[in-house]
Specification:
The structure is a single chain. Helices cover 88% and strands 0% of the residues. It is an all-alpha fold. Helix 1 packs antiparallel against helix 2, helix 1 packs antiparallel against helix 4 and helix 2 packs antiparallel against helix 3. The model has no long low-confidence stretch (mean pLDDT 96).
Length: 154
Amino acid sequence: MTPYAPLYALHLLAAVIWVGGMFFAWMILRPVAVQALEAPARLRLWLGVFEKFFVWVWVAVVTLPLSGFAMLHLSHGGLDGAPRYVQIMIGLYLVMLALFLRIQALRLPALRRSVASENWPAGGEVLGKIRKLVGSNLLIGLSLMALVAMRPPF
């Protein structure tokens, strides 16, 4: 086994955890929560889900660039020798990171405050904003994974 293999495995696992978690939340948990729970319970559920899931997103946020740049140096001698799709991957990672940080730093504290004060309309509004940011991040993440899987020659 080469030194590249465990780095690649970590990189792939981090991406799958982040993007897969968003897919599960958006496509499965959200519709069921809307159907089965009233606003107070739904907002409490989402707050708990975000707090647990974001721990894993932070692991991914750290693991992806560390493993990615290590692989970049092992296989391409640095960024200059990397294929264009790798450079696109780095750029899209930064966009996804910015969206995640917006949720983490701005929206999650607002959701926490709304739930703590039992201000359900405000909590619903914040949750809607989080949903849009997660949806954008999910689309970027799925597109990114498809792009990298195809390894286009441009």
